[in-house]
Amino acid sequence: MNPCDVELLELSKKSLDVKNPIFGEVGTWCGRSALMMGKWLLRRDGDFYAIDHFRGSMNDPKDQKTANRIMVRDIYFRNISLMPNIHTLAMTSIDAARIFKDEMFDLFFIDGDHRYAAVQADIEMWLPKVKKGGIFCGHDCKCHADKVDPKILRIEDISQYRKSGVFPGVVRAVCERFDKEQLHINRGIWWIQK
Asked: What topology does CATH give the domain 3-12+20-189?
């Protein structure tokens, strides 16, 4: 297990006293986190909703080629094939958000499009879907924005993200939306308790 997986499992434990917990994720890729959390939920009669269009990042041709080359959708469905509690919505985050009612999820994980505007949109669409007291979290946020050069935080070209060592769109959107006292960042995972 990598450090992000460990952190996600720790966050999942905050729902131990919830009967039939419901978790969700935008940006499931090959389904590693979906499978891990799905297994955890299965032992607690919980459900997991995985949302991804399986085409890679729409603004990153390299990512799109990778998604096609490795057939990410096929890998995902093979990985979760024995998990009756994982429900897959092969669609965009925007389309999926319209389906779910507010305050449905005990934990919701954002790991989709990493561009600033997309992360902002995911936060605004999915935060209302999390129950009061639930966990709202995401991936690829190594530190608070005040620890990153402001020039890097303005990078919009996703090919430059890899060179910067951070995902500036994620860091900027998350840190602008949540107060530093409210926002926790550990092992590449950001989270708040609603």
From this structure: Rossmann fold (3.40.50)
At 126-140, the pLDDT tens digits run 999 999 999 999 999
β-sheet with 47-51: strand ranges across: 86-89, 47-51, 22-26, 105-110, 130-139, 189-193, 184-186
Q: Which amino acid is at 2?
A: N
Q: Indicate the helix (H) or strand (E) that contains 89.
A: strand 86-89
Select from 98, 127, 95 the least CA-distant residue to 110: 127
Structure tokens at 28: 């499931």
Taking residue 98's Cβ as centre, other Cβ atoms within 10 Å add up to: 8
Q: In this structure, what token pair is assigned to residue 5? A: 């997986």
Beta partners for 25? 50, 109
- Cβ atoms of residues 54 and 72 within 8 Å: yes
pLDDT digits (tens, 9 = 90+) for 73-104: 999 999 999 999 999 999 999 999 999 999 99
Question: What would you measure as the largest C-alpha separation in the chain, in angstroms?
Answer: 46
Q: Which residues pair with 110 in a beta bridge?
A: 26, 138
